[in-house]
Write a structure and sequence with these properties.
Elements (H helix, E strand, L loop, with lengths): L1 H24 L8 H13 L15 H13 L4 H8 L5 H11 L26 H7 L12 H12 L15 H14 L8 E6 L2 E8 L2 E7 L11 E5 L5 H14 L8 H6 L1 H15 L41 H8 L7 H10 L2 E6 L5 H14 L8 E5 L2 H15 L9 E5 L2 E3 L6 E5 H10 L7 E4 L7 H16 L4 E6 L4 H7 L5 E4 L6 E4 L1 H8 L18 H13 L5 H12 L6 E6 L3 H14 L8 E5 L5 H5 L9 E6 L12 E6 L2 E8 L4 E8 L2 H9 L7 E5 L3 H6 L14 H9 L5 H5 L8 H13 L3 E3 L3 E3 L1 H6 L6 H12 L3 H11 L12 H8 L8 H14 L3 H7 L4 H20 L21 H12 L3 E5 L4 E5 L2 E5 L7 E4 L8 E2 L2 E6 L15 E9 L3 E8 L2 H7 L3 E4 L4 E4 L3 E4 L2 H23 L9 H12 L3
Helix pairs in contact: 2-38, 3-4, 4-5, 5-38, 9-11, 14-15, 16-17, 21-22, 22-35, 30-31, 30-36, 31-33, 31-35, 36-37, 36-39
Length: 1101
């Protein structure tokens, strides 16, 4: 007997475990209140929502239509509504969608309704009658000078103005009420379960609360309220219902039971769902859709972006403006340039060939002289017009060459000057301009929105750099040649593979010009350490009296140099240079560094090193983020004679810094590298190529003999790549695919095969898959841009981060999102040696925002920005100071880019409340993060129990993050794969590593790292609505009551709720299309977007 009982208990326990496991594996449920349902329905009604997207070409045959009608009627839909749905829907799914949209919720079959099928609302144990009154849709009367009963009667009178409390002869006995309450408790309060009937009292008011799956129902009794001689005061506290429906319910009870009052509590409780449905109908008659309406925008064709300079067709120039007054000194300098002897050959080659190559060594003068040759030949000819566009890879090159040509021609800068330039954010052209220096991006945008008519010559300089943009420009120019026989293309570079470029254009002539470079003496890192007696940080002590560095010492220095960058050596070298000449005859020291943050760090070190020195050292920065006016300082004469220019690689080519004799080369640069595990582009510091190192060396020998101090060893130089590989072969191609589609050139796979060094088909296909994944393109079946893709095509940054920024604007949390995106554009700012990782994590948790690494980074930036001593703040918290400076600079760039595409106003001010109303709203921030990082999603598999082993046994425990089973839908080499999903683990550096419970079983993440395990870095637990509204394509499983994203992320939702969410997604796409068609029209104050943000904030409730 006992054995049988034990077996029964065991079977019961197993059954309970199975049921619990089944419950845990159920998809999380999506809630949508009546108010939000009405809001979405109003939107879709306003936008003339239809179901034409469902089988538009399919016509149902008679038998097929009758079969579908029969199936819908079997599901419980009303026959007249079924007939109406068959007029627009040609499939079961289409008809159910239409019915869920057009029938009131209470007229839908029970399994499709929102009411009754949504998750049970948890009711707080801290419950007050005042809360109940507010939850029922009424404003509580809280006059402190009146008894609570009097305030409650005021609430009743706000519902029924004619209500009057009973007089003394009518006052009922409360004894009958207490008997009725006791009966309800006996019926509904079952042993061992949470009581459904509870009693609360306040002063002389007694309240009975009935728990319901959707909330609670509250009856209020007092002598002055009149029950049972009058109907009971019933307050419906269903949070998912609209306030109008809750108020209508209270009125309905009074009208329904006005003639029969006594003993109706049981009837009301048992008929509650039916009464709620009646209240809905009553509310619908009184209150129409509360959705804020707005006038439909009048759509106009997209306005082309105006691109300057635009010269009038058939312009006739006054050639007298082309004669300047150059000085004798400048004319003598021009005459001494090597390319001057080739002027006739250059002009003859250009005149007789549509495409030609000029290959000139460093210092030959090609970048300044070839355009001037053309201009001087034109002013002596009988030609009517000349329009030369010189394309340079960098803005500083455009500015430097513009200034030099003006000086050499003797022109005066101004509105009549025939030489101009155009870079992002700065244009100096006029109707008389015949020569324009511009960047590659500017020329591409001009060719994108305008034809090359009016341009007579296009010179592409520094084509050896092989950037994605320059290679794509060559592809476009090759196409342009077919329909523009008069245009001339000149390709120029100091070092290039002439055969490669010649063959690409079908065999074209070239001309080689020798360079002019003075002798430059090379000093490598081991030489520098010996000559200057410098002791590197974290390295051995150097004996200044020791013999010259041995080969073994060089190997040790090389190994140290791979791991560390010792910026302190740079001021040491500068002091050595200044002391090397006595007296100092002047000269500029040019220092090449990898990025802006490094420039700021070294600049501070140099100023500190010479703070107490009699030498008035002048430090000037030179990088692409500076304004044109700031970059202009590089070309000005030094006031003190002791000038140090700190530059990125933008000073490698095309510009001559006056009186530069010394170069200090760090040997490093920041290069955009694609991370296939994160699908993000990251700026990484790498060694430059040998060709780049030689170009840097050449900067010291342009005007006289000089020196180059290389902060790497000879062996390191030999290990460097001979040339920088073409960017198109090592970079993500999403932006390029967007450009080809934006310019309507055709299928990117076919288009990019026509580039000079075409990328692999796999790389292009992978880029298109990424764009499709983030909804930037669609296949119909040809690849086409979506409204979002049109915007991303205008943003020169990683497409995922670009999407995040756009949605940060739409959701009015732009400052916070821009900051997070700036952090994601580079490696982690937290740095510590292995032995101090635990201490670093303890410091990191000072900034923690639970469940989100990304919002934690936002807190880091806010505290760093507010710190008085930012460098000390970084030191204490194991944060890289240079990386934080890069974040600040990247933020500025992102704000400018958003203004360029009109998502922010020009001159945007930080913390503008119009664009940051939701800047501290966690759910809205997570939605913007999800928009950018999707489909980097982790699915968490919940566990029933977890047993932790200890000495002598084990005990049940809540699992840690590392003990959950987590999966991503991506194949990672060496990973544990199950049903197409790869198991991953949260990295110990993540804030989420120590969490034990997750609000939602889905996270978004930034990167995947495959080391000892497959780890995810920088993760955030997100809400269902963040994924549903900003994730992948939505599919509704109407009969199963689920909604899925990308066919693998699943949520429970009644058909009506799922269909409304799907419709809302479609509306958001429409809103983006409006923004593309009318970029000047602001949508940040759009009531619709405010409604969507409210939906995110409340999780649909």
């Amino acid at each position: 007997m006992m054995a049988e009982e034990s077996r029964r208990v065991a079977r019961s326990r197993i059954a309970n475990q199975k049921e619990l496991r089944k419950q845990l594996q159920r998809p999380p449920q999506v809630l949508l209140s009546d108010a939000n349902q009405e809001f979405i329905l109003g939107l879709l009604e306003e936008q003339n929502f239809s179901l034409k997207e469902f089988d538009p070409e399919h016509v149902l045959a008679g038998e097929e239509k009758e079969s579908l009608r029969k199936r819908l009627c079997e599901l419980g839909f009303p026959a007249p509504a079924v007939d109406a749905s068959l007029e627009v829907g040609k499939s079961l799914d289409a008809c159910i969608e239409w019915l869920c949209m057009n029938l009131p919720d209470h007229k839908l079959p029970k399994q499709f309704r929102a009411t009754g099928n949504q998750i049970r609302m948890s009711v707080s144990t801290r419950f007050s009658i005042e809360d109940a009154i507010a939850s029922a849709g009424f404003e509580a009367q809280n006059d402190a000078n009146k008894p609570f009963e009097a305030n409650l009667i005021a609430v009743v009178q706000s519902i029924l103005p004619s209500f009057q409390p009973p007089n003394e002869t009518e006052t009922p006995s409360m004894e009958n009420v207490e008997t009725e309450i006791s009966s309800l408790q006996l019926i509904f309060n079952l042993e061992g379960e949470t009581p459904k009937i509870t009693v609360l009292e306040k002063e002389n008011v007694q309240c009975v609360r009935f728990l319901h799956p959707n909330g609670s129902l509250l009856f209020c009794f007092s002598p002055q309220l009149g029950y049972p001689s009058r109907p009971p005061l019933a307050l419906l506290c269903f949070p998912a219902l609209a306030a109008s429906v809750r108020r209508a319910f209270t009125k309905l009870i009074y009208s329904e039971y006005e003639t029969r009052c006594e003993g109706v509590l049981y009837e009301i409780v048992t008929d509650l769902d039916e009464l709620v449905s009646k209240a809905r109908e009553s509310a619908t008659e009184e209150v129409k859709h509360t959705t804020i309406r707005r006038e439909k925008p009048v759509h106009s064709p997209p306005k082309p972006v105006e691109s300057k300079p635009r010269h009038p067709r058939n312009r006739v120039l006054d050639k007298s403006i082309l004669f300047g007054s150059p000085s004798a000194r400048v004319s003598e300098q021009r005459a001494s340039l090597p390319i001057t002897n080739y002027k006739a050959k250059v002009l003859d080659m250009i005149e007789h060939n549509q495409v030609s190559i000029v290959s000139g060594g460093t210092g030959c003068g090609k970048s300044t002289q070839v355009p001037q040759f053309l201009m001087e030949a034109f002013r002596e000819s009988d030609q009517k017009d000349l329009n030369i566009v010189v394309c340079e890879p960098r803005r500083v090159s455009c500015l430097g060459l513009y200034l030099r040509v003006i000086e050499e021609q003797g022109f005066v800068a101004g509105n009549q000057c025939p030489v101009g330039y155009q870079v992002q954010g700065d244009v100096k052209v006029n109707r008389n301009t015949v020569l324009t220096y511009c960047t590659t991006g500017v020329l591409l945008r001009r060719l994108q929105h305008d034809s090359p008519k009016g341009i007579t010559h296009i010179i592409v300089d520094e084509i050896h750099e092989r950037s994605v943009l320059s290679d794509f420009l060559l592809f476009l120019l090759k196409r342009i040649l077919r329909s523009n026989s008069d245009i001339r293309i000149i390709l120029m570079s100091a070092t290039l593979n002439e055969t490669l470029f010649s063959d690409y254009f079908g065999g074209i002539p070239s001309l080689s010009v020798e360079g002019r470079l003075y002798k430059v003496e090379e000093r490598y890192l081991d030489d520098i350490i010996f000559d200057t007696h410098y002791t590197p940080h974290d390295f051995i002590k150097m004996d200044s009296e020791s013999v010259r560095v041995s080969a073994d010492m060089e190997a040790m220095i090389s190994e140290w140099n791979e791991k560390y960058q010792d910026f302190y050596i740079i001021p040491h070298i500068i002091r050595y240079i200044f002391n090397s000449e006595s007296p100092w005859t002047g000269g500029v020291v040019l220092v090449f560094l990898s990025g802006v943050a490094e420039i700021k760090t070294v600049g501070q070190l140099v100023l500190e090193a010479f703070a107490n020195s009699p030498l008035a050292v002048e430090v000037i920065a030179c990088h692409g983020s500076l304004s044109t006016q700031e970059q202009h300082r590089v070309f000005e004469e030094s006031r003190s004679g002791y000038r140090v220019v700190l530059s990125t690689n933008i000073a490698e080519t095309s510009i001559t810094i006056p009186n530069c004799r010394y170069v200090i080369d760090s040997g490093r640069e920041k290069r955009l590298v694609f991370n296939p595990l994160s699908n993000l582009s990251e700026m990484k510091e790498v060694w430059v190529s040998q060709a780049s190192a030689e170009q840097r060396k050449g900067r010291a020998g342009r005007v006289r003999s000089g020196f180059v101090f290389r902060l790497f060893t000879r062996s390191q130089f030999r290990r460097m790549e001979p040339f920088t590989p073409p960017e198109m072969l090592r970079s993500p191609l999403e932006s390029l695919c967007l450009q080809t589609l934006r310019m309507q050139l055709g299928d990117p796979l076919a288009v990019l095969r026509g580039c000079i060094t075409p990328p692999s088909a796999d790389s292009v296909q992978r880029a298109l898959e990424t764009l499709e994944e983030i909804q930037a393109v669609v296949r119909t079946p040809a690849v086409a841009l979506t409204p979002l893709g049109n915007h991303l095509a205008d943003l020169p940054l990683d497409c995922r981060l670009g999407k995040m920024l756009i949605f940060g604007c739409l959701l009015r949390c732009v400052d916070a999102v821009v900051t997070i995106a700036a952090f994601l554009s580079q490696r982690s700012v937290f740095r510590a040696p292995m032995e101090k990782r635990d201490e670093m994590m303890a410091r990191k948790r000072r900034f923690v925002h639970r469940f989100s690494d990304h919002i934690t980074l936002l807190r880091v930036f806010e505290e760093w920005r507010g710190a008085k001593n930012k460098r000390e703040f970084c030191r204490q918290n194991f944060i890289n100071f240079e990386s934080m400076q890069t974040v600040a600079l990247t933020r500025k760039q992102y704000f400018e880019e958003l203004a360029n595409i009109h998502f922010l106003p020009s001159g945007y001010a930080l913390n503008d409340p119009v664009f940051n109303a939701n800047g501290s709203n966690e759910n809205v921030l997570k939605a913007a993060i999800t928009a950018g990082l999707y489909a980097n999603v982790v699915k968490i598999e919940k566990k029933v129990k977890f047993h932790r082993t200890i000495e002598g046994g084990s005990f049940e425990s809540t699992p840690l993050a590392k003990e959950y089973r987590m999966y991503i839908r991506r194949e990672v080499p060496g990973g544990e794969v199950q049903h197409g999903l790869t198991r991953v683990f949260i990295h110990p550096s993540s804030i989420n590593f120590v969490e034990q419970e997750y609000k939602c079983p889905y996270l978004v993440y930034t990167t995947v790292v495959n080391t000892s395990k497959i780890f995810i870095n920088d993760s955030t637990v997100v809400t269902p609505y963040a994924i549903l509204l900003f994730g992948g394509p939505i599919d509704v499983q109407h009969l199963q009551g689920t909604i899925s994203v990308d066919k693998w992320i699943e949520f429970s939702a009644p058909a009506r709720v799922a269909v409304l969410i799907k419709g809302l997604r479609g509306y958001m796409d429409r809103l983006l299309l409006e923004k593309f068609n009318q970029p000047e029209e602001s949508i940040v104050n759009d009531p619709v977007m405010e409604g969507i943000c409210k939906l995110l904030t409340t999780n649909g409730i």
